[in-house]
Structure to design on (561 residues):
């Protein structure tokens, strides 16, 4: 008999198919909320970069839409709105026994495009207001109101922003990549939220500029949906946010778009940050002139996202800051911008960026946007260990400060450069480098509008002290607010414990009374049974011997009166 051991080899003959081609496994397809097949590389925890979003195509033709009456338009809009939200188009329309087909992304997209087409032909206000489309969309995406999305329920945050994550999901977010929407407090069906996003996108792409006042304020809600646990909803949120930025007026960037994007960077969901950074990059190409003016606020905000723990966020931040810096209008620093941005993202490249700036000849006027790009790298270069690198920074600062257009432009960067230049001028042992630092400090002092270096240092120190005091006041206010909130929670819990104790005491008293009553009933029943045993009459008053109410003379219990 043949024995089989671990060294035994088995050969299996390969069977060939008739056509000689490999059979591909079936591909999992998505239909609405039925599910999405996980990718091989990252599963549900990764995001796949898509190209341009598929175009929304309406099924209603212009001739059919133009011939409709107001009543027909209103009824058609209601049916299409239910279809876009993933609901049945009409009750019992397909019969009671016949089930309706499941809603898919394609059907919801076509319904949203049809509603936008009706808005083009019959008026945007009629479709959005009188037909209730806008109210339906807001109830699905913003059930708590627009203030909840902007994080301004109590009026404490006028800058706008994102709705904070639910407390029930805060601990779960530390250990899980994808959190279900239910744990975040979102009870609206994902199909309805996707339909609302598709409808906003259809209004932006098909209706155009006329829908801007209704669509652009919902940017925060679109960014918030980027953190959904459903991939098709995340794709719809990204496409809608892209369409909103494309639709928005460039002059809306400083007052409406950027505050929302800035607050989105504080979201605990990394997908929201990534989407906001991609939209910031889109703003650089959509409104470059307005973006260039906002560089002093944009660069420090985006720089903090480069060191995010998620590599997707860091990569998006690097692309966004490069696109933002390239909107600068100064032609002298344009060749050095890639090296400067690389140094911002990778501090070890600081020396190379300083060498690029040292070779730059400054001819054009240096404004606040140019200073916002250069000053962080120059401040870091002044802290380098090698003295030769400090000399290069001093030369760049000297050349740059001579072309500053106004003291207000360089004032925010004075606390960043003046103390470091003062340290170089006082501590470096080489006289040539100290002279370069003093020359740069003198030029920077003149650019700041001061008559002497001591006056500039005193002004910078006063501003720094004022800033520190304001920061301490803000921290103290936040601490007091947290203490007040904790005290309110503690008082509420104490009141709940007191009420709970009173309720439990009352319940114990009721239980005690009920037990006493039950014991009394039992004792009464026992006494009644004992009396019944001793009595000659039954409970009905009849004699227990003869069965009559009035006993006969022959009865054992007969008594003569």
């Amino acid at each position: 008999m043949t024995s089989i051991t671990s060294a035994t080899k088995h050969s299996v003959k390969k069977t060939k198919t008739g056509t000689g081609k490999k059979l591909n496994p079936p591909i999992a397809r998505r239909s609405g909320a039925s599910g999405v097949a996980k990718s091989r590389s990252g599963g549900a925890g990764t995001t796949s970069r898509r190209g341009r979003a598929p175009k929304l195509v309406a099924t209603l033709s212009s001739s059919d839409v133009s011939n409709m009456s107001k009543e027909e338009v209103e009824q058609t809009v209601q049916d299409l709105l239910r279809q876009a939200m993933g609901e049945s188009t009409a009750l019992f329309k397909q019969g009671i026994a016949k089930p309706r087909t499941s809603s898919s992304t394609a059907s919801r997209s076509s319904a949203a495009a049809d509603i936008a087409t009706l808005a083009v032909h019959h008026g945007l206000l009629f479709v959005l207001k009188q037909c209730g489309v806008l109210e339906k969309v807001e109830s699905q995406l913003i059930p708590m109101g627009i203030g909840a999305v902007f994080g301004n329920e109590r009026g404490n945050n006028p800058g706008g922003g994102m709705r904070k994550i639910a407390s029930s999901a805060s601990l779960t977010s530390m250990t899980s990549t994808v959190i279900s929407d239910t744990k975040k407090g979102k009870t609206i069906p994902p199909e309805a939220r996707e339909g609302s996003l598709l409808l906003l996108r259809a209004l932006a792409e098909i209706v155009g500029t006329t829908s801007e006042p209704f669509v652009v304020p919902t940017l925060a809600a679109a960014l918030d949906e980027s953190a959904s646990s459903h991939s098709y909803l995340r794709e719809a949120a990204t496409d809608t946010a892209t369409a909103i930025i494309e639709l928005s007026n460039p002059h809306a960037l400083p007052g409406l778009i950027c505050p929302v994007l800035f607050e989105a960077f504080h979201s605990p969901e990394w997908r929201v940050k990534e989407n906001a950074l991609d939209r910031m990059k889109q703003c650089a190409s959509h409104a470059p002139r307005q973006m260039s003016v906002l560089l002093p606020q944009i660069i420090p905000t985006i720089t903090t996202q480069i060191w995010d723990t998620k590599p997707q966020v860091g990569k998006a931040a690097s692309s966004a800051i490069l696109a933002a810096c390239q909107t600068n209008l100064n032609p002298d620093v344009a060749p050095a911008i890639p090296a400067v941005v690389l140094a911002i993202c990778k501090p070890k490249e600081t020396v190379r960026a300083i060498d690029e700036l040292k070779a730059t000849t400054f001819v054009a006027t240096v404004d606040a946007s140019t200073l916002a790009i250069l000053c962080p790298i120059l401040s870091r270069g002044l802290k380098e260990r090698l003295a030769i690198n400090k000399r290069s920074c001093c030369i760049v600062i000297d050349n740059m400060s001579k072309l500053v257009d106004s003291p207000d432009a360089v004032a925010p960067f004075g606390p960043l450069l003046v103390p470091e230049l003062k340290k170089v001028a006082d501590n470096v042992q080489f006289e040539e480098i100290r002279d370069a630092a003093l020359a740069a400090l003198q030029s920077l002092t003149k650019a700041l509008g001061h008559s002497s270096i001591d006056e500039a240092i005193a002004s910078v120190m006063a501003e720094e002290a004022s800033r520190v005091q304001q920061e301490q006041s803000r921290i103290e206010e936040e601490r007091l607010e947290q203490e007040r909130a904790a005290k309110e929670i503690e008082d509420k819990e104490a009141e709940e414990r007191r009420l709970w104790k009173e309720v439990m005491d009352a319940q114990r008293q009721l239980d005690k009374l009920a037990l006493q009553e039950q014991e009394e009933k039992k004792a009464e029943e026992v006494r009644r049974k004992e009396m019944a045993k001793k009595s000659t009459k039954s409970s009905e008053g009849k004699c227990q011997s003869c069965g009559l109410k009035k006993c006969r003379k022959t009865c054992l219990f007969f008594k003569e009166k």
